[in-house]
Amino acid sequence: MYLSILFPSILALYALYKNKITISGIILAWLLAIIICYLGGYTAFLALTTLFLLTILSDKIKSNSEDKTRNIMQIISNVLTAAICIILYYVSNNNIFYIMYYCVIAGSLSDTLASSIGTLSKSKPINIFTLKKLKIGESGGVSLFGLFISLVGGMIIGAIYLIVEFNLINFIIISLMGFLGSFFDSIVGTLFEAKYKCLKCNKKTDNKIHCLKKTKLIKGYSFIDNNMVNLLSNIFIFILSYLILK
Ligand SMILES: [Zn+2]
User: Fold this and answer.
1) What spacing in Å lies between the alpha carbon of 151 and ligand 1's midpoint?
2) What angle do CA 234, 239, 243 make, to 5 degrees?
3) How far is the CA of 208 from the centre of ligand 1 (A)?
């Protein structure tokens, strides 16, 4: 019990020190991490820690990121679904929810890596539907390298599960769910995510404000931002992995 509070606290203090998450975001992340560690065990917590550290690392790589401090909405969209899996596992004692937890975390990590390392590739990503080439880093596009990286993301979380549970089939399912989560993210991002244009500097942006001025919506729906896409992707993996595992 004490360690379940201690470990998440170390992570929270690290995030606070690095100024990576807003205060309200840290408090929620800290609480969710304690729930995951206490109810799900240290392996589940290790998967969460891996997601957290690799997200921070990939933020460093990402060159086009406009806002690197994560807020409470980003914590909700990336960790809440996973925490719900662990709570369901604890309440029902059904192992399916435990595996689903890794699937959801894998989806988040795959997407994070694909949208950071995946964009380092020299080849331009393409829009899945129009097959037109996109600018590097523009969300919604896929590249072969990005797809490969998202599979690696899924396999990292799958490997953490494998070390403890020795179940190869579940390892494959977790790896594939990571990959599919990232792919789903791209599709929803392409179709529905809000894109804005700054009326002052003419740059395309994900933000409603740019150059201290309100931007103009040029694509998608204003209520579907990147956090919403991530949340929908997590829910998609939650449902899909349940259907496969049940
Ligand atoms: Zn601007």
Assistant:
1) 35
2) 145
3) 10
65 CA distance to ligand 1 centroid (A)? 14
**211 alpha carbon – ligand 1 mean position (Å):** 4
Q: Classify 210 as helix, strand or coil.
A: strand
Looking at 1-5, 154-158, 183-187, 216-220, which range is the least confident one?
Answer: 1-5
Single pTM value for the model = 0.90
Residue-wise DSSP of 147-183: HHHHHHHHHHHHHHHHHHH--HHHHHHHHHHHHHHHH
Q: How many Å lie between the centroid of ligand 1 and the Cα of residue 223?
A: 21
Per-residue burial over 70-92, b if 16 or more Cβ lie within 10 Å, else e, is bebbbbbbbbbbbbbbbbbbeee
Residue 218 has pLDDT above 90, yes or no: yes
Instruction: Give the residue extent of every domain in the chain.
Output: 2-245
Tell me the CB-side half-sphere exposure of residue 94, using CA atoms within 13 A. 11
C-alpha–C-alpha distance, residues 185 and 166, integer Å? 29
Structure confidence at residue 183 (pLDDT): 92
**97 — pLDDT class (breaks 50, 70, 90):** very high
Interval between CA 214 and ligand 1 midpoint (Å): 9
**Measured in whole angstroms, how far is the alpha carbon of residue 182 from the centre of its chain?**
8
Q: What is the rounded CA–CA span in Å between residue 169 and residue 176?
A: 11
Q: What angle do CA 123, 190, 67 make, to 5 degrees?
A: 80
Question: What's at 60, amino acid-wise?
Answer: K
Separation of 189 CA from ligand 1 center, angstroms?
22
Structure token pair of residue 243 = 């259907």
Least confident of 53-62, 109-118, 155-164: 53-62
